[in-house]
Amino acid sequence: MVFITFWNENCQGLALNLLTHIPMKKLLLLLFLLANLSPIFSQSIQNLSLIPANPTDQDTVKVVADLAFTSGGCDLVGSGSALNGSAIEVVAKHCTGMLAVICYASDTISLGVLPAGNYSVNFNAEVGTYDVNGNCTGFVTGAQQSISLTVGSSTGVGQLTIAAPAIRYLSDKKKLILTGNFFDADLRIMDITGRILYKGQLPPGEVPMTQLPQSGLLIFTLKTTDGKEKSGRVVIQ
User: Fold this and answer.
1) Angstrom distance (rounded) from CA 35 to CA 94
2) Cα separation of 114 and 160, whole Å?
């Protein structure tokens, strides 16, 4: 009898060796149990941001969450948001598969048009697994993260805060966009190996990259002419 008390990346080699000596029926049961245990440890929120970064009470606000899973696929199967006083609760439900790969996802979820004021956006990523009938069940909270949101009045422009510089990936156009309120920025974009894919100075707008990868994680650093600095990650998929 084999007892498995936890599952992480360091156990994969040992587990694979054990699986080759388990009868098929017990193997299927074991895989099913592992699939339902693994979401607890298999997901993280890489980055949380808002679109637009500087909203008014006339804008439709969206939250963007860049997620990483240690098994694939990682399909988004449901999402929603609810306003409770000054707190906005957001839920994104992903269903993971059995592939031992890093699976990246970028969720864009609408929060709707909000009254002017200060809010806390609480993002909850729930993870489930497919059962033997192909249904996604057993959802658990894989990760949580919060971000502050200030919605300005459309009649009080002076109350708005300055939008922070950031990089956005437009999946429909396959382009990277530099956003924020500044004149110019020194921008550097690298892949996860540290290889520089872009380096230059440019204003807000499209980043003129000729070799944008099909998928993966990019790392960026930027510094604006007024001294603001920022680094972060962008998921390409």
Assistant:
1) 13
2) 15
Pairing of strands 216-224, 185-191: antiparallel
Decide: residue 218, CB within 10 A, 0-12 exposed, 13-18 middle, 19+ buried.
buried
**Distance of CA 65 to CAs 15, 25, 134, 151, 231, Å?**
32, 39, 26, 19, 16
DSSP 67-102: EEESSEEEEEEEEEEEEETTEEEEEEEEEEEEE-S-
Whole-structure pTM value: 0.53
Print pLDDT tens along the chain (237 aa).
333 333 344 444 444 454 455 566 555 555 544 444 444 445 688 888 999 888 888 889 999 999 988 888 888 999 999 998 899 999 999 998 888 888 898 999 999 999 989 999 999 999 988 888 888 888 988 889 999 999 988 764 443 344 678 888 888 788 888 887 777 889 999 888 888 899 999 888 889 887 788 888 888 988 887 777 888 888 887
CA–CA separation, 109 and 190 (whole Å): 27
- A 10 A CB-CB count for 74 gives 23
